[in-house]
Amino acid sequence: MAMPLTDRIPRSGIRSLLEQYATADVVDLASGDPAAATPQHVIHAAHRAAAEGQTHYTDVRGLAAVRAAVAQKLRTENGLSDVDPDRQVVLTAGAMNGLAATLRAITAPGDEVILLDPSFPNYRAHVLLAGGVPVPVPLQASCRTRTSCGRPSHRAPAHSS
């Protein structure tokens, strides 16, 4: 019988440290939870939207008006000329949701995925969930290339024009 997926993903070291130092006078930079309170104009806008009935599921890609605004920003501020908000812009409820969706879309079973080490433990978990193989690359002052870090040199195939 195969080991359950939940048993193959190691417990987050960040969680262990958070529990260990929960009562200490330290600044938690691990969870990504903003230290600042939600601005009043955001609270008022959320309240107004709820009062107007905007409390249902949206398009799975995100609100069309917001996708259009993102596409416009990419065109005007980032110089990307052809951004189609219906085909090329997807909004997620956070970076990890976006990363998980992306990894599942582009990772085939057994694909190696390079992860900087140390890095956020959830990156490794999401690679495993997508069927990939995490390949840690240590971050060290002396580590300038994969070969100088004790890793084999892998070259991507050249793209034909």
Task: Provide an overview of this structure.
- The chain is mainly alpha-helical and 161 residues long.
- The chain has six helices and two strands, in the order H-H-H-H-H-E-H-E.
- The termini are far apart.
- The relative contact order is 0.10.
Give a quick rundown of the structure.
With 161 residues, the chain is mostly helical. The protein has helices at 5-8, 13-20, 40-51, 64-78, 95-106, 121-129; strands spanning 112-117, 133-138. The chain is 37% helix and 7% strand.
Q: What are the key terms here?
A:
161 residues; mainly alpha; two-stranded parallel ribbon
Layout of strands and helices, then pairs:
Elements: H1 5-8, H2 13-20, H3 40-51, H4 64-78, H5 95-106, E1 112-117, H6 121-129, E2 133-138
Parallel strand pairs: 1-2
Helix pairs in contact: 5-6
Number of helices: 6
Encode the helix/strand succession as letters: HHHHHEHE
Envelope shape: extended
Helix content: 25-40%
Outline the biggest β-sheet. 2 strands, parallel
What is the averaged pLDDT score?
Answer: 82
Class computed from helices, strands and strand pairing: mainly alpha
Can you count the beta strands? 2
Strand residues, percent: 5-15%
Radius of gyration: 21 Å
From the N-terminal CA to the C-terminal CA, the straight-line distance is 48 Å
Low-confidence stretches: 152-161
Give me the side-by-side strand order of the main sheet.
1-2
